[in-house]
Design a protein that fits this description.
mainly alpha; single chain; 2 domains; two-stranded antiparallel sheet; about 5% strand
Length: about 170
């Protein structure tokens, strides 16, 4: 899971310089003994933020990298990771990581963190009718008021005031 998320952050340019892919190609496949200690160091840096070699690494929130346990991977498994790392992970829908991350946690840890993934369709089922439909209705009412005004300087001010009133409402949603 950490390897997959590292590939994703690399392709989103959150992890600059293809650190993971480059290390796979140039260091780990040819010398698998370096993998464990070096990826451990990278992931510790991703957990806290800071410098990794010459690169500044942003902190990755969410505790995925908090546990420092890393497994030694033999050359054959590193060979399997390389084609995956060379793919463009930036096109992956980020929501896919919710269920994947949730499954990496044991049930007690998941409960303690409140880490329960809610699919976008469930969120939309609530947000669309409660929030967006109400806002659409407000927008339609504002449009009707504005379009019914006869063109004049006084009515232009009324139209602007109506739109500003809607904008104020949107700011506090």
């Amino acid at each position: 899971m950490r390897c997959i998320f590292t590939m994703f952050t690399e392709d989103l340019q959150l992890l600059k310089g293809e650190v993971f892919t480059t290390a796979l190609k140039s260091r780990w496949i040819s010398n698998p003994n370096k993998f464990k200690s070096e990826i451990e160091s990278l992931w510790k840096t991703m957990n806290t933020g800071g410098n990794f070699g010459f690169d500044a690494i942003l902190k990755v929130n969410g505790s995925l990298f908090a546990d420092g346990i890393v497994f030694n991977l033999p050359k054959a498994e590193l060979d399997v990771l390389l084609p995956a790392a060379e793919k463009d992970w930036s096109q992956i829908e980020p929501a896919i990581f919710g269920p994947l991350l949730e499954r990496t946690l044991d049930s007690k840890e998941r409960s303690k963190l409140g880490a329960h993934y809610t699919p976008p369709a469930y969120v939309e089922r609530l947000v669309l009718p409660v929030v967006l439909e109400t806002l659409r209705q407000d927008w339609l009412e504002t449009e009707i008021v504005v379009y019914q005004l006869e063109p004049s300087a006084a009515n232009k001010k009324k139209a602007v005031d109506s739109i500003n009133e809607l904008m104020q409402k949107l700011r506090y949603c």
